[in-house]
Design brief:
By secondary structure, the protein is an alpha/beta fold. α6 packs parallel to α8. The longest helix has 11 residues. It is globular, with a radius of gyration of 18 Å. The N and C termini lie far apart (51 Å).
């Protein structure tokens, strides 16, 4: 299946979402994610799957000296160029798994709602590790395993059309999950919580924060938003490449 974001029907529906129209202010997870961002003034930031470029623009406005947003969708990057152009920001058509990840190149690597389209996380973790400077931060938001393990990623409804409960099945069976998103067929990749977090630890990262996204109080009056408190949809993770490494590149204890 091709990239759904280059499907004109899908892209038209995506453009109507609050996060597309309003930017970060329309993203329910942003209040938490912003709190996890490290200081980026004078830093170099790589955004994996940058979409409309909202996070790239945010980093630039916070003083980042260089920001690169990559995305495999030319349609998304066209929007990024139109909405979030900045002298410190450049955009490149490139998939997450195709970027070369030059060694010790970036201070911060960020990724928002992209990694649940990646079949195998461990190779990406190793590439991010390679491209981060010692002490660098990897910050990402991925769909929560409870969400990706949802049957059809939808509620079970009663006769009145009200959501009764969120069904979860085949949780420990990682891999593709076919669902419908914005009226189109979309394939996502389910990863267990163990795979997401232990993969980082096995790579050598230090976990700095793990948060499950909850909509803020000021957004609860939006249609369907209160139901987002009934099960987690997104998982926010902040990890650090240790400042001090042994000669083999592995973490080294400070003595």
């Amino acid at each position: 299946m091709g990239n759904p974001y280059d499907n004109p029907e899908f892209f038209q529906q995506y453009a109507q979402m609050s996060r597309s129209r309003l930017g970060l202010a329309g993203a329910g997870e942003w209040r938490q994610l912003e709190g996890l961002f490290p200081p980026v003034a004078g830093k170099r930031v790589l955004d994996l799957g940058c979409g409309y470029g909202w996070h790239c623009a945010y980093a630039a406005k916070q003083g980042a000296k260089e920001v690169l947003g990559i995305d495999q969708s030319p349609a998304m990057l066209a929007q990024a160029e139109a909405r979030n152009r900045h002298p410190a920001v450049s955009y490149q058509v490139c998939g997450v798994e195709d970027y070369p990840y030059p060694e010790n190149r970036w201070d911060v690597v960020a990724s928002n709602l992209v990694l649940h389209y990646i079949e195998r996380l461990d190779p990406v973790y190793r590439l991010v590790w390679r491209t981060l400077v010692p002490g660098g931060i990897f910050l990402f938001n991925i769909e929560h395993p409870v969400f990706t393990a949802g049957v059809g990623q939808d509620w079970i409804y009663n006769e009145a059309g009200q959501p009764c409960y969120w069904p979860v099945d085949n949780y420990f069976l990682s891999g593709p999950r076919d669902t419908r998103f914005l009226g189109c067929a979309v394939t996502k990749q389910h990863h267990t919580l163990t795979e997401i977090l232990m993969g980082l630890l096995d790579t050598g990262f230090i976990l700095k924060a793990v948060e499950e996204a909850k909509p803020p109080a000021e957004m609860l009056d939006m249609p369907g938003m209160k139901d987002e408190l009934r099960r987690p949809m997104m998982l926010l993770v902040k990890a650090e490449k240790p400042q001090f490494l042994a000669k083999d590149g592995k973490p080294s204890c400070i003595k």
